[in-house]
Amino acid sequence: MLNPIIIPELQELIASNDSETIREFCQETHPATVAELIEGLETAEIWKFLSMLDIPLQAEIFCCFDLDKQVELVSGQNRKDMARLIEEMPPDDRVDLVQKLDEKVTEEILPLIAKAEREDIRKLLSYEQGTAGAVMNTDYAVLNPDTEIANAVEQLRIQAPGKETIYYIYVVDESRKLIGFVSLKDIITAKPSQKIKDIMHEDVICSALNDDQEVVAKKIEKYDLIAIPIVDENNILVGIVTYDDALDIIRQEHTEDMEKFMGIAGKHEVGDYLKTTSWQHFSKRAIWVMALAIFGFIPGAIIHSFESTLMSLIILAFYMPMIADTGGNTGSQSATVVIRALALGQIRPKDFLKIFFKEFKVSIMLAFTLGVLAFIRVMFLSRGVVIPEGLSLIRIALAITIALSIQVITSTLIGSVLPIIAARFKKDPAVVASPALTTMVDISGLLIYFTTAKLILGI
Predict the structure, then answer these.
(1) DSSP classification of residue 128
(2) Domain boundary, last residue among 126, 156, 187
(3) Beta bridge partners of 230
(4) The dihedral of CA 178, 183, 184, 190: what is its sign?
(5) Are 339 and 432 within one domain?
(6) Does any domain span residue 181?
(7) pLDDT (0 to 100) of residue 296
(8) Average of per-residue pLDDT values in the chain
(9) Could you tell me if 109 and 163 lie in one domain?
């Protein structure tokens, strides 16, 4: 959020070309805070502000803008100046930016970028989206196993300024094959005469280039890593994924799961709600909603087929919402629990029977509890209602209770089984959840409700 007091002061400093004060302010303030403060300025003011700083500091602040803001700033900037700034950005951040730029802008900027950085960008762009290769960072520290600790410290002093992190240093042989790693703590506490191979850890947790980015993020989380090395098919070290990238991946995956869970189609990207156009929101939501609206005719057809039952005992209509809501709630709960367990790797499709019987036991307990509440509710709310001859309120309450209990059991089992089936066929479990699940439960609930009432009450 913009600070209304600081913004006018910054504008005054920019207008007066007070570069010394601006540099001092940026050196004492975190880049993310600086980016937040100047983001609301005019584009020309932002660039004038940044131009008063050294290129490395410019890049640090620029990287803290959200991607859409970066694209907006790049599109109107001098191409040579922008190329210098992109060269200073971390490899994964600059690739994300280049991917979002218009093709014309990319073609104008890429030739101006230094050859090494340009080749690195093209290499990272070649990896399939959503894989470790597409999100990795190619700035990492390496050492040779035969290097003495004293020399290793000197080498790290040289490497450190250009690396995103040097807490983990990877040990590679002459062909750059990954053979181990050491931490900065290992090096600091080792004797100067020791060699890297004497203190290195050979049990390296790593990921392959084509591993799904979510798998990489889960490894970082599972093993409490600051970074994880990425290797190719020959075990050659090609990059790293850091913990902050893992956080971005997890947030993106959670956004995707949440949107799929609610039947939102299209690309599932972490973006600003207000910056997403109304048309984009509409196009993401419309397909599933229209499809489910068509399926929504089925409950109407079921009610119509049981019209005579409903007309002969109008009290049944009063409790239809209760049946539908209870089934939807228990089904969604079951689906949520199972989908989360699948996402965390706690269960797999092969555990189908274990999951089925566990949810069945849970559904029996829920059915009993909710059935008792439903019976009391009918008896309390429907006192004094006119009952057709030959029937009693207790009998009607019993029929509604049995129908609700069966609905709870079936809804819970449907909610748990559908994600497992989807996962078994390599589909996203979240897709089969709400609102598709709700529609299925509504259909089954009405069939159970009227069929049970007809059998028990004989109408």
Answers:
(1) P
(2) 126
(3) 207, 239
(4) negative
(5) yes
(6) yes
(7) 64
(8) 85
(9) no
